[in-house]
Here is the input.
Amino acid sequence: MWEQIVANRRRSAVLIIGMAVILILIGFAGGEVIAPNAGAFGLLLALVIWGGMMLAYFTSAEDILMYGASARELKREDSPQLFNVVDEMRLASGLGFMPRIYLIDDPAPNAFAVGRKPETSSITVTTGLLYRLNRDELQGVIAHEIGHLKNRDVQFMTLAAVMLGTIVILSEIVTRSLWYGGRGRSRSDSRGGGQAQIIIIVVGLLFVILGPIMAQLLYFACSRKREYLADASGAQFTRYPEGLASALEKISQAHVPLSFASKATAPMFIVNPLSAAAGDEPDSVFASHPPTKERIRILRSMTGASFTDYDAAYRRAKGGSVIGTQTLQAAPQEAIRAPSTQGPIQTRQDSHDIARRSAGYLRLSCNCGLEISVPEGYEQDTIRCFRCGSVLPIPSATSAPPPTSAQSLPPVLPVNIPPVIPPAAMQFHRTKSDGWESFRCACGRTIQLSPAFDASQIHCDSCGRTIDVT
Amino acid sequence: MIPIILLIPVVLVIALIIWVVGAYNFLVRLRNQLENAWAQIDVQLKRRHDLIPNLVETVKGYAKHESGTLEAVTQARNMAVNAKSVGERAEAENVLTGALKTLFAVSEAYPDLKANQNFLALQEELTSTENKISFARQFYNDAVMTFNTQIQVFPTNLLANMFNFTHRDFFEVKAAEEREVPKVQF
Here is the structure.
């Protein structure tokens, strides 16, 4: 959607420049308040802070935002169906590259996309989403998120969130140094110390005031229109608006609060995680998302799957167009396709297994039938089963090669070949089953072997040892 | 001072050149998008061809009496691999889809087969590949429509003729059953 892409680019530029201007003004004014010629110093400080924000954004925006959410990156073998669903949407939307996929182990169903460039972007889903939605619904959610990616909403939101986060962190630093630094300051340097003290107080106050204002600006800047446009994109990519509609319905009815969402990150989710839990969604200018009932109604009243059909449905529901005219003119006709018959792609247990496996838990099966997940930091070599009490050894790579049968030995050759001595760092592991298997390396790290693993060696990521797998 | 009357044609020529460059680049971008979309379809079709021998072997182990269906699938796959023109390929792929549908329907009767991990993984991969072909085909057809419109609309069509941007075909063949008008009997 060209109009939205252009609008988002403009908003990002305005935000970057506007933030610089505000910081410079505050720095200069604050500096002048403290001492007659300290304005320049304040200005410089402001520029340094602004430069720091830009640096943080351009180097590690995604890591910063994903950090608080304890999300784990998934590989294709962890959940081939999820990867296939995303891959299908990549083709339908013409995205061109595969976004990274992250999983959060949380019973609340929700999803969001993060990224400052299309190529470095990622989509995150919760386990609660994976086991509640069927394939069409999950595909609808993924298509909605990819719609955000294509419209550059995600890039703008990431920028805004990093800026807000930086301001929050700075205000924390300043208020804390104010609190602790005040006690340890030496009396002898009273005049110089007093000035520095005042500077810190003023700057801290400014940040504390600026933080909430930024949050409100963030909410105003997030026009709720972007959610409708992403819904339209989602319907067009999947050719099945009912999928996204019933996904939104299930998510909004779950009423489970999301444990890691805050006011700053709430706008990035598919349904507002803070109000979805409470069950009420006001249709006000201050809300970050449009009310879910409205979105579902529009999707369900669509007669086709193209942008023109979405726009028509929106006009019937709310009056006034939402999609730009250039996009509407170029939009091809799409008919709604038949639904797929596949149910949820993961059971509840499977979803938790995937999350734990990515987090490095080692899975053991006891003979009584219980499956035990051993965390990575567990130090001992054995564990007691909780149900039957038998002691289970934790599979670890051994340094002795497994005994080979007599038939596999090559015939004795006449030439005197020196025996091969395995290097000291070599470890061995024998696979016991065809499914997922975990064992511990000598350094303690859990190594997971997927059913698709068919190589003969694997490297430990932490210590670099090579392990022979037979 | 240069008289205005001489400046006007110069400005017009510059404007024309800027427009030509812009329109040409736009057509090139559309064409590349189209060809990329076709390449995506190609990748998925090849993937489907590669998955089938594995599927046939797996099913053979459990469903020995269904050799007829398996033969049909293998033959359809070979024909699809050998097809050349766009029309031929679309036709062959449709036949292959039909044969696979029959094979999956038949495998419903074998519970051992349905529980086999390898078979389930292959079924998921093949279903997903079908979906991907369908989505990629729709994206390709949309790109073709945009491209064809642009080379026919007035100002750009002059450019299209000059620089040899030719009309592209849609990748769209309905199965023989879908083309027939359903017979209604009372």
